[in-house]
Amino acid sequence: MGFFDIFKKKKVEENIEVVAAEVTPEVAEQIEQEEKQEQEELNSGLEKTKEGFFSKLHRAVAGRSTVDMDLLDDLEEALITSDVGVDTTVKIIRKIEERVARDKYVNSDELYSMLYDEIALLMEQAEGSAENFGLDAKEGEPYVVMVVGVNGAGKTTTIGKLAAQLTRAGKKVYIGAADTFRAAAIDQLGVWAERAGATMIRQDMGSDPASVAYDTLRSAVANNADVVLIDTAGRLHNKVGLMNELTKIRNVMAKVIPDAPHEVMLVLDGSTGQNAFEQARQFTQATKVTSLAITKLDGTAKGGVVIGISDTFKVPVRYIGIGEGIDQLRIFDRHQFVKALFGKK
Ligand SMILES: Nc1nc2c(ncn2[C@@H]2O[C@H](COP(=O)(O)OP(=O)(O)OP(=O)(O)O)[C@@H](O)[C@H]2O)c(=O)[nH]1
Ligand SMILES: [Mg+2]
Prior knowledge:
By secondary structure, the protein is an alpha/beta fold. The chain is built from 14 helices and eight strands.
């Protein structure tokens, strides 16, 4: 489901009778097929995480007939080494302990299903869901998303993929090349903008990023754009400098559109495991982050970070990247994710 399908969904909800009449068995079947295909693509994107997670769990559980302290210790280790994070792991283990104490004898299948339930519940309770995305956007005003994150996290790629989804959904998209640190960064974004059919606003390398953001918003407003995506530089070697720069970009944008940016999306490289936690910690402390995109979940066994990060930061994960391709950005669906992790159909 694309970003702006949410708007459609809202309209649909206001007009439920019409929609009910439209859902023919053929349409229902098509929806079901699409959902199935999405789940399959997600399953293959998360294959390595699933294998890593399960081989560890399996090793912990294999040959044990009862759930005792030893097994729980091994389970704890399996979760931690799957990058779920210590705090979240401890939370999960406590829940399992409580249930085991209640249910007494638990076999390994039951243990797996308990784990599934607990992780699914944890994700459920983590604040924010894709269902709310963008509902506060106003008609006739561009919805501004500022994209932040350390170098190489996948900001530019995520912007490119997102722009493509949005233009495909009929939205007019403006992209601001506010990472002026390297000429190559501007060119890379230009290639994505062209592919996506979006308009990129740029200045020369080395120019003031806030000035690029300002130009982008002015131009977006003048041309009735629907969405603005602002790319930023991700250098962290001078953290204070970077955070000041982000603040300056925000302030300048608010001069054009008072509510902007409507969204500050932090992009995290999921394949860095614990490092992604650390980045989330630093950025959420330094600037207001309203959503997360976790990239590179394909090709890594560290996808457990999504569970820990959702639980720890209470900032909704909006998107996950499962490949470099233009179509490999997904709205994060907690249910689908946990299912993929446990290999459930
Ligand atoms: N496999 C995979 N690669 C990805 C994904 N997202 C981004 N990448 C790759 O990660 C690399 C870095 O991505 P960029 O989008 O350039 O990262 P950035 O955050 O803009 O980096 P800077 O501009 O240096 O700050 C590129 O080679 C991307 O193709 C993903 O979901 N999966
Ligand atoms: Mg970039």
